[in-house]
Write a structure and sequence with these properties.
alpha/beta, Spore Coat Polysaccharide Biosynthesis Protein SpsA, Chain A, seven-stranded mixed β-sheet, 8 helices, 44% helix, globular, binds guanosine-5'-diphosphate, binds magnesium ion
Length: 240
């Protein structure tokens, strides 16, 4: 089942952390569902900090599938993994995925938009009209609160920043490089900087049905999100 190593057209970047339970099955399923895709693609497993067998599973996948690459560093850091994975992507188009979603429907709809229209970035929104967010109430509320804070502090115009995204690598590369924060808020900074740079960003509704609860609980992420929000407020709004 090893596919050719032709230069990929599409890079699917997936941050992964302690995902030994679902990584193997999720990638098998993704590869299977992309079997009729017809264009060269790569899957970049942007792993860091895992303390379970994720690194070994990633290696097995890399050996088995020529289109899978994996990256590893020691510190668990979602934003850093995503940032470095995007910058390392070989494809013209980058799709930012999550291993518990692997949303092929988003991938296809986002590609259609990027290819047919002068759109710079497509964001999968869990919170816009037409979306279906099947996560627990507590986490849905968390999304609304963070979006409210992003609107208030950074002038964000939209309904979601975290999660599924698609864009041309070349267009977003300088914006990724300009981002200041890592961890959870990197994804938000990326969308907000793209918006402030005048890029054409299109939100499309997604259905979110996770295969498992998050690897790091919401409450544990709050202090870092607030710290980075303050940092971005100073940098973006006050120019400090
Ligand atoms: N590399 C890396 N990936 C992470 C980290 N934390 C979460 N992820 C990955 O990011 C994606 C989303 O994480 P998840 O735990 O579902 O949190 P959610 O975004 O709130 O749903 C999954 O693919 C995780 O494996 C991290 O510290 N480092
Ligand atoms: Mg999740």
């Amino acid at each position: 089942m090893v596919e050719s190593r032709a230069e990929p057209y599409l890079s699917i970047v997936i941050p992964v952390y302690n995902e030994e339970a679902i990584l193997h099955a999720a990638i098998l399923d993704l590869v299977d569902r992309l079997s009729d895709f017809g264009r060269p693609y790569e899957i970049v497993l942007a792993e860091n900090g895992s303390t379970d067998a994720t690194v070994d599973v990633a290696k097995e996948l890399r050996v088995r599938f020529g289109q899978v690459r994996s990256r590893h560093t020691d510190e668990p850091n979602y934003g850093k993994a995503l940032r470095d994975g995007i910058l390392d992507a070989k494809g013209d188009i980058v799709i930012c995925e999550e291993i518990d979603l692997c949303d092929i429907d988003f991938l296809r709809r986002a590609l259609d938009l990027l290819e047919a229209e002068p759109v710079d970035m497509v964001v999968g929104s869990k919170a816009m009209k037409g979306a279906s967010d099947e996560r627990p109430l507590f986490r849905r509320l968390g999304t609304h609160i963070i979006n409210g804070l992003l609107r208030l502090t950074l002038g964000f115009r939209g309904t979601d920043t975290h999660g599924l995204k698609a864009f041309r690598q070349r267009t977003l590369q300088p914006i990724v490089q300009a981002c200041l924060v890592d961890r959870d808020l990197f994804a938000s900074e990326l969308v907000i900087r793209a918006q402030r740079a005048g890029l054409d960003i299109r939100e499309i509704p997604v259905r979110v049905l996770e295969k498992r609860p998050p690897t790091v609980g919401l409450v544990r992420r709050v202090p870092n999100v607030l710290r980075n929000l303050a940092k971005l407020f100073l940098a973006i709004r006050l120019g400090k």
